[in-house]
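Researcher: We're teaching a course module on how sequence relates to structure. For the next exercise, students receive a sequence and then see the predicted structure as tokens, so they can try to spot secondary structure elements on their own. Here is the exercise chain.
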Amino acid sequence: GSLSKNDNLYLAVITFDGFAFENDIKSYAKTMVLALRKSNIRHFGNFQFVGYNSRFQFFRRRNEVIVHINY
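Model: And here is the predicted structure for the students to work with:
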């Protein structure tokens, strides 16, 4: 995961590959929550999923789960 800054907007992002099923997205969101808690970073808003590949692309897929944070 990483942090990106755009003016006063901070996001926590976790990136993963492969096909993204609902259970995968929930699992990565949970992993992110635990990592943010461990670092004493509060998150807010809904988690968002971003998939960058066509459903017909089978290899080198990239997905992200994103949430706003107070940092």
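Model: If you want an answer key for the exercise: The chain has a mean pLDDT of 91. The beta strands are 2-6, 9-16, 42-51, 63-70.
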